[in-house]
């Protein structure tokens, strides 16, 4: 007798929708993938199979099923109500256009199970705005993945003011089960967490560039050859905790300096205009516009290898702990 | 006949001094390592040998020499003048205390070759302050490495207003020859580049924490499982260039949002006090203070593996380009 799999509805068959389908099916869920555009759906299974084969051949796959087996648990449909009505989890991943998303949620609202999780993959829209008029707005949250989600584990979980605590907890557990790293927010804020941090780095970069302190290449290099390698393994408070020693010592020591530096240059001002053109000229010397797609694959390959490296080291560490060679941290 | 090796004087035999000694000797330089404290010097060669053996056994060493052979080119002395007088490059790495550093530079100033590069490893002092009174101040700059320098390639090159262009160019070439990634600054600024960017991330983290948007764990996770993996390979303008598509499109698109977000919360305020204690309580649950040293080794192992991973992928890419399978970027 076939086991009863939990059902997930994924709405939208673009890159993010396909990534969710891969992640959920790898973790043993039954996935229904919906798209309005039947033509778009016709290539989805081939595409997913190709991705899974590549991952498997590189030793980067996550699940225990072989690709053929796994994809038996992905069904496709252009009928939204069919897809959604008995799903315990509904993952919206349609284009980043407010009206398009809102229309989907209205339709889903009428047919979804009362206790289902209803999630948007938006990177920029506030959950309160997306869900204000829904009957099921307590079931609603944003789960924002980072590209490429199969290799970058962070997913931001953003509640609206009315999202139930139970939905947040279940969503968190769900992401852990998929092997993702849930960044659970306590309340919504524009830019969420990741983009705000990214913008903070970009803002400081822009300031340094504008003030003529360092060039485009130097700014990039400071990150990929300096800060990036540590941030691949540790967050800002973890770094401070190690260096302090202890995060309190660190913050007490650098707090006044940081405050002074932040006040010293004033706001970054609007990015864009002539300086942005200058930056683009520099960047095009490195990667011409017609080779960006290729360079994105370059990035994806490296991030995938880093993801595997981290997993391999963690497994090795787990083994050493089990063998009593290493004392686990609390 | 023995080949004539270029001579480097490294002043100070702490972690940074030893790292410089390793890097320069790996690259084929003759290194003279100086410390006032002869007792401290007695263990240096054993320590360097241990580090080199570990690196070699893990396939992480850089040079082509075996450890014994390489260390034949490192000599130790407690005589500063002897060490410095015929060196083409002088790397100061004494404790981060202004008066201690200034005293070293005064002594060096009297005996150094007129065309030698005179460099401080300081992470926080401005080169103009350190070198103002030196006869050889045109030869002076800061070269600030990032821990651990053998695996994190970034080195910030910071000129004083009077540092000669020739010294900056030679210093840059020197770092490239060591296999480091020089971040060449055009003028000095407090915090240099890396720390300013690190402080920008930390400032935003503090703000998000203070506003109750997300907890300590969420902030750390957003970085190590989200932003970090991309920053391990790409700087902020490179990320924007890929996502834009093109950095100008990216900056034009997000510029207004970034400006608005930056203005929306006001300054971060002084870090420290009660909230810092709360952060410390959280962090201690993860890593108790008496296990920080162990956790630093945990970090170092991971960063070393990432460094090797990057090198291996780059070598593979180079091979594919040589075989005509891949078209090089400009």
From TrEMBL, chains A, B:
<dbReference type="InterPro" id="IPR006108">
    <property type="entry name" value="3HC_DH_C"/>
</dbReference>
<keyword id="KW-0560">Oxidoreductase</keyword>
<dbReference type="InterPro" id="IPR006180">
    <property type="entry name" value="3-OHacyl-CoA_DH_CS"/>
</dbReference>
<dbReference type="InterPro" id="IPR013328">
    <property type="entry name" value="6PGD_dom2"/>
</dbReference>
<dbReference type="GO" id="GO:0006631">
    <property type="term" value="P:fatty acid metabolic process"/>
</dbReference>
<dbReference type="GO" id="GO:0070403">
    <property type="term" value="F:NAD+ binding"/>
</dbReference>
<dbReference type="InterPro" id="IPR006176">
    <property type="entry name" value="3-OHacyl-CoA_DH_NAD-bd"/>
</dbReference>
<feature type="domain" description="3-hydroxyacyl-CoA dehydrogenase C-terminal">
    <location>
        <begin position="191"/>
        <end position="268"/>
    </location>
</feature>
<protein>
    <recommendedName>
        <fullName>3-hydroxyacyl-CoA dehydrogenase</fullName>
    </recommendedName>
</protein>
<dbReference type="Pfam" id="PF00725">
    <property type="entry name" value="3HCDH"/>
</dbReference>
<dbReference type="InterPro" id="IPR036291">
    <property type="entry name" value="NAD(P)-bd_dom_sf"/>
</dbReference>
<dbReference type="Pfam" id="PF02737">
    <property type="entry name" value="3HCDH_N"/>
</dbReference>
<dbReference type="InterPro" id="IPR008927">
    <property type="entry name" value="6-PGluconate_DH-like_C_sf"/>
</dbReference>
<comment type="similarity">
    <text>Belongs to the 3-hydroxyacyl-CoA dehydrogenase family.</text>
</comment>
<feature type="domain" description="3-hydroxyacyl-CoA dehydrogenase NAD binding">
    <location>
        <begin position="7"/>
        <end position="187"/>
    </location>
</feature>
<dbReference type="GO" id="GO:0050104">
    <property type="term" value="F:L-gulonate 3-dehydrogenase activity"/>
</dbReference>
